[in-house]
Amino acid sequence: MQERKSDFWCVVSKRIVESSSSEALTFIHTDASRLTYSLLRALHVNRVKLNTFYEPLIANFHTEEYIRALKEEKPCTFFREDSQPFPGIYEYARLIVDGTCTAADMLIDGVDMGYPAPVTLFWQGGRHHAHADLAHGYCWLNDVVIGINRLQERFPRVLYVDTDFHHGDGVQAAFYNDPTVTTVSFHAFGDVFPFSGSETERGEGPGLGHCINVPIPSTVRLSDREFELLSMPVLEYAFEIANPDVVVYTVGADTVLGDPLTRGYNTTTRAICNVVQYLLSRGKPLLLLGGGGYEPTSVAKMAGAVAETVSLGMVPDNDATLPVTDRNLDKYRPHVQLHTQRVYDDGEGYRNKRVKKVEEILRQTLPEKARKM
């Protein structure tokens, strides 16, 4: 039996699953949270109990007026149309912050225990759209920013990677002038929310050059292989300029083909697992967050595939299956493989065009010396 990584911990909370059952969250998270919770338990990952004492950290990023409005649960200019407040919203959003900060602290504890490159995962985290005084994109409190601030109490330099289908505008804005946090975002671009993330957005002042955007035209549906060709040179360059002490990665299961909101790229879970494997190879403490995703079985499979990539130190085989001990296994039938499988083949001509598009994106994004195809 293959040895599994011992310095890998997952924050798994039934309380968060139950708090996501609000009618206002049904489309976004409810079924996906339940399936993910069940699958991670069936995979026998090391689980960490949720700590709930991080509320004071919220005010280190969000404004006092915004926090008050969120607690009052009344519509106002702080809340965009897609992110109106509802009963229990502050408690729900605060629990997400608690989860990410618990994972951040466990990462610090792992280093203190003598592990050079521990990994923690909190799948419900990654609400990367929230700004200091604005909720949009189904994000009310920016747990990513708050978690990074927490990590910087121990790790001065942070590399933040984001492969969610949507640009992480809230995280970018928080660190746009900060050279100690390098942000890298691979995202669909064009007529896609939040309509930001051009390659010309590179940071300001001391942070100039520490913001890297890799906009993928929304009409270009990259395959697993094409996503790898695009992401690896960018990540190598990002490590070079960031010189990070720790890495934070928001995954995004909405990149998988067939997502009901985004339609995804032409990718499977393997595209993201390749990124995870690369980040592991760099030997830095790593915090993994789930981000978006709107097809429940794909979201759960992404969480499981990422967890297994970390546990095994390699991307699971394509024929790997979900554990038979998962009580929700019937929800996946007949597709019980761990990886998502759905892709389409549009022929060699289109594949060649997409590879050329990858080359074009890299030319726009990276200096010449950093391009490696």
UniProtKB/TrEMBL annotation:
InterPro entries documented for this protein:
HDAC_I/II, HDACs, His_deacetylse_dom, His_deacetylse_dom_sf, Ureohydrolase_dom_sf
Alphabetically ordered keywords of this record: Chromatin regulator, Hydrolase
Q: Which residues form the Histone deacetylase domain?
A: 48-309
Cellular component annotations (GO), alphabetically ordered: histone deacetylase complex
One GO MF annotation is: histone deacetylase activity, hydrolytic mechanism
A single BP term in Gene Ontology: epigenetic regulation of gene expression
| Top-rank taxon, per record | Eukaryota
Which EC numbers does the record give?
3.5.1.98
User: What family does the database annotate?
Assistant: Belongs to the histone deacetylase family. HD type 1 subfamily.
The identity of this protein, by name, is histone deacetylase
